[in-house]
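Reopening this one. Same input as before:
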Amino acid sequence: MYKLSKILAICFLLMIVASPALAQEGKSVATTNSGFSIFLGGAFGAGLVIMGAGAGIGRIGSSAVESMARQPEVAGNIQTAMIISAALIEGATFFGLIVCMTAP
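Same output, byte for byte:
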């Protein structure tokens, strides 16, 4: 129940922030501002991407170490799967960073 209320609160805040930006008419934000808001949005998005990747890789690492402690005989297989999963998360993170930094 707590997670659901947290998700709903985040969605509500995003709707409040997005509605004034979508209601603008005329020139785009990129031509009217000096570009600061674009860089601020990209930096905010990049920070969210990095925090998500860090949380994901941390969760993978902790679960893998716990699994290795419980069954040491399959530690090699678990470590291989952990490295592959971490590499996939890193790839998605780099894609997200590039999108955040290059989107005007």
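So the earlier flakiness isn't reproducible anymore. For the record, The chain has four helices and no strands.
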